[in-house]
Amino acid sequence: MKRILFTLLFAAPMLAQTVTGKFAQGESYVEPQRNAPPATSRMFIRGADGQGVDLPATGQGGMLIVVGDGHASSAKLRTPAGDSTSRSVQHVAVDADGHEVVHIDRTIAGRYHVTGIGSGTTVVAAEPDSTLTLTTTVGPLSRMPGDPLTLHATLRDGDDAIDGARVVAHLVAPDGKIGDELALASKGNGEYEATINDLPSSTNGFWSVRYDAGGFNAHGVEFARSGSNEFMNERGSARIGNVRMTVDGDTLHVTADADVLQPGRYRFDVIVASRKDANGERRGIAWGESEQTLDHGTKQLAIDIPGVRASDVFVDVRLLNLDAMGLAGRVTLEK
Amino acid sequence: MSKRGVLFFILILTLLAAAAAEAKTGVVFIHGKGGTDLANPSVARAYWTDDMIRATTKGYAIPYLICSYDGTQYMWVAGGTVAGQIYNWMNANAIDDIVIETHSFGGVVIRWILSNPTYDYRYQPIINRIRWVNSIAPPNKGSEAADLAGTLSGSWLTGWLVDLVGQKNNSTTNCTTSSMAYYNQYYLKGTSGRPSLPKTIYNIAGYGLWNDFAHSEDYGLATLSGIAGLPGEDDGMVAQYSAQSVGVAWFTTEANHHHNRRNDYRKIGDALATDF
Question: Could you give the CA distance from residue A244 to residue A253 in angstroms, rounded to a whole number?
Fold first, then answer.
């Protein structure tokens, strides 16, 4: 008896795979961002050779220096003026194990030189107070197979654009494999860009884009900056199209055709919003999600969303993969 | 209504009242990302510290569960482990009123559960019993500190910085600002312009860095904040804008990311205990 009751209680939720809801009163609907959110950096990375490593400082405030394995105690720093005993340089412990960072209160514009560290050691330097920034993005954030990928970087020193810098990027696959160097071309006004049509591999998941920039600002001061963004390289596991919607009473009936290339667990998501108002904004109305296992081939998806009376609505229809997270397809429709 | 109908109505009311009288409150702790050893219950308990658990549960008077999961995994993997633990605990102890306390990535893990009720048969019964969630320093829009792991990819770096940021593993990838922008628009609810969550999240954001000069961890977090370029106020790991992008801002705390899961520098456990 207990087993029957248990089955009745818990089998029901397992079978009921559709949920719907309404947006809060006055809540706006927001379109998915096309590109990765911009990331702003005031730090850079250098690798030491047998003679140590040079760290260009802008002279715009302090600098933090992290050495490879965290043991900065052996690192010796020479200022651009050739001083190795500057009082502005401090070694600070950062954890209970005695790992240290080097902290310079106020830098002089020019190259600091670090010695006493092994060849190949990575050195991270940051100028948190500097006005010289590298801002990067990559798009699309959700890249479907065949989509070109645009890498974008902006270099600014306060309000001044920095042109003539060298800006490169490396794509890093989800498995950690690093691609060849890609040069970003100057577009003027401190903007740099590269577009690529193919990735080094078709590996699905989040890829990183690591940017490195170097050059001189308008005052001839040398700088370096590094940054990163990520994008999702989608599997292309299914396609969605032929979206239709009808209103029956206060229920919106939405259907779409899915062409499934990789069978598995998927979720059919529909967000209902108003037409754009005078400010170009849409008001969220309702939403529905229907999870199902789809076999290979064409399948019609359908969902009923209650509480939608108007027929002049906008729908944002998505098919999400639930086996390996990722967007299989997205279509919008306005009536 | 007939006499029999009235009697039946009274009987139903009595049963409902009896059920309500037996309502049993419990509190669940969900930790943040970290190492694989966080799957060990004793490591997860140490993450929170005994004083935080004692304070929150009013001297252990409130039944509690400390979830433990592999801190290197994606939110849906962590969510499965956490859901299994909550589901078994609430059923075994007849807990039907749950307050969830999360720290850092734990706030993203519970959002995954709240946002995807059909993903796992245990999610909806758990959601039904949640009163609300108190989320301490959740990277709801990601963390620039996690982005740093991407910037450092391909570099040979070990030691304290990597210990703080995390290796470039699945949970760190989950917490980058790019990944969270992606998940927020397709898989997670609660950010502006998305459907709302089925239960309220009260967020607690940290804004302090230099809490306790006796602990060198504070220097580490302050250094990380400077290197990662966390915008605006932050607790050394998560910026305030990110923590407050979901739910209702309950309060902000001077306690940094090291201290805001503890009941030491600021008595956050005492504040959480006011729910009971």
Answer: 8
Q: Is residue B5 part of a domain?
A: no
**A:B CB pairs within 8 Å:** 181
Domain presence at residue B15:
no
**Low-confidence residues of chain B: pLDDT under 50:** none
* Rounded distance between C-alpha atoms, residue B52 and residue B255, angstroms: 13
How far is B160 from chain A, CA to nearest CA, in Å? Answer: 6
Domains of chain A in start order, with CATH, are 43-126 (no CATH), 130-233 (2.60.40.1930), 237-334 (2.60.40.10)
Task: Quote the strand ranges of B110-268, DSSP E.
Answer: 130-136, 201-206, 248-253
pLDDT value for A98: 67
CA A223, CA A218: separation in Å to the nearest integer?
A: 11
- Distance between CA atoms of A112 and A71, rounded to whole angstroms? 18
What burial class does residue B252 get, using C-beta atoms within 10 Å of its C-beta: 0-12 exposed, 13-18 middle, 19+ buried?
A: middle
Is the Cβ of B213 closer than 8 Å to some Cβ of chain A?
no
Is residue B12 a part of any domain in this protein? no
- Is residue B71 in some structural domain? yes
Using only C-alpha atoms, what is the Rg of chain B? Answer: 20
Residues in A 182-241 with any Cβ partner in B closer than 8 A: 206, 208-210, 226-232
Output the domain CATH number for residue B194: 3.40.50.1820
User: Does the beta-carbon distance from A229 to B178 stay under 8 Å?
Assistant: yes
**Per-residue pLDDT at A5 exceeds 50:** no
Contact (Cβ atoms closer than 8 angstroms) between residue A172 and residue B153? yes
Chain B interface includes A19 (CB < 8 A) = yes
The domain of B58 spans: 23-273
> What is the predicted ipTM?
0.93
| Residue A49, beta-bridge partner list | A52
Take residue B145 and report the two structure tokens written for it.
């500190």
Q: What is the mean pLDDT of residues A230-257?
A: 96
Whether A88 and chain B come into contact, CB under 8 Å, resolves to no
Q: In which band, very low, low, confident or very high, does the pLDDT at A72 lie, cut at 50, 70 and 90?
A: low
Residues 150-169 of A with CB under 8 A from B: none
pLDDT tens digits for range A145-162: 999 999 999 999 999 999
Q: Which residue has the tokens 């080097």?
A: A102
Which residues fall within 8 angstroms of residue A7, CB to CB, at 6 or more apart?
Answer: none
The answer to whether A28 contacts B153, with C-beta atoms less than 8 Å apart, is no
